[in-house]
Specification:
This protein has helices at residues 2-15, 116-140, 192-195, 199-218, 220-231, 236-260, 269-276, 296-309; strands spanning 149-151, 175-177, 182-184. The chain has 326 residues and is an all-alpha fold. It has one domain. Strand 2 and strand 3 form a beta hairpin. The radius of gyration is 18 Å and the shape is globular.
């Protein structure tokens, strides 16, 4: 029982340490030379690289019906019907096929504005688009799907969550709480003073947090929590596991923006370029000194890798060399 509680605590803390947004606006970008792919886009502050447009989801997922997971801990005499999560990281079914990627589905986003009501509508419309893409992908991999809940408070201190409240386990950033499947995007934590009326960075933050939801649905989060508990949460091995978790979510965020930007909907090239140039974040700017999110160059390179490759296997940080997730 003690072990189970400790494992849950690790996963909950990990959910609360997700998108470390730049603290003082766009910074000069650094292009990674990480080595997990032989091709990397090069970029400056004013340029970007076209998203790969050939992403596909196997046809078997085309009309997959979303399947809700059974309640954790609910008594049952038989295994729940339908797809089930698989507690695995690098060998998770999400990475079973080289052609797994997000379908190019047009997004219809609500107009972004910096007031709370407009931001909530924008993020909710973004979740609708993320749902449309990821439900098909998870269905193709025979994994369960359900949409996450969303909370956009004025500040995190306004509400308590199963993963903690402002200033405790969740730190100072937006986060995903796996205990209640909720993405928390407090208005005072999404760096409005840095990004203003440019929606691209906000959409990429949402897609990063949604990436953690995908990890939770697939069973990656469960396996990660067990592995980090065994290694020691703040040990060198435990922190490396955290970086793999975070950088994978970065790559998933890039996959979504890259796919949506070629679909003819609300995510146009301008919004995509804004997101492309907003990924300079991570441990280089951490206030607590922990190396649990990955360097700025790897946050940039993994996001851009996802945006230009749009393949699940290309985002499998669990099988990458340690130098690629530093």
């Amino acid at each position: 029982m003690i072990v189970a509680v400790a494992v849950f605590a690790i996963v909950a803390v990990a959910g609360g340490l997700v998108a470390a947004v730049a603290l003082s606006g766009p910074r000069k970008q650094h292009v990674a030379d990480a080595g997990y792919s032989s091709t990397y886009p090069t970029t400056s502050d004013e340029t970007t690289t076209e998203a790969t447009t050939t992403a596909t989801t196997p046809s078997s997922a085309g009309e997959t019906t979303a399947t809700r997971r059974s309640q954790r801990g609910a008594p049952t005499s038989q295994p729940p019907a339908g797809p089930r999560s698989v507690a695995a990281t690098g060998d998770n079914p999400l990475f079973a096929r080289a052609d797994y990627g997000l379908q190019n589905i047009p997004c219809s986003l609500s107009r972004w504005a910096t007031d709370q009501d407009s931001a909530t509508r924008f993020f909710q419309s973004g979740i609708g688009c993320l749902d449309a893409m990821w439900s098909r992908m998870l269905g193709a991999a025979d994994l369960p799907f359900e949409t996450p809940k969303l909370a956009v408070p004025r500040s995190l201190s306004e509400s308590s969550t199963p993963c903690g409240s402002g200033g405790t386990t969740t730190g100072v950033t937006p986060f995903y709480c796996p205990a209640n499947d909720t993405i928390y995007l407090p208005m005072d934590r999404i760096e409005i003073e840095a990004w203003g009326n440019h929606p691209g960075p906000y959409l990429s933050i949402l897609a990063h947090e949604y990436g953690h939801h995908v990890q939770n649905l697939a069973g990656i989060s469960e396996a990660y929590g067990n592995q980090r508990y065994d290694a020691g949460a703040d040990s060198a091995a435990g922190l490396e596991l955290s970086r793999r978790m975070e950088l994978e979510a970065q790559c998933f965020s890039g996959m979504f923006l890259g796919s949506a930007s070629v679909s003819g909907g609300s995510v146009d090239k301008n919004l995509y370029n804004e997101a492309w140039n907003a990924q300079d974040r991570g441990d280089d700017y951490a206030r607590n000194g922990k190396r649990d999110h990955g360097s700025a160059k790897h946050n940039i390179s993994w996001w851009q890798h996802g945006a230009t490759k749009n393949r699940n296997q290309q985002c499998n940080t669990w099988l990458s060399n340690s130098g690629d997730v530093s």
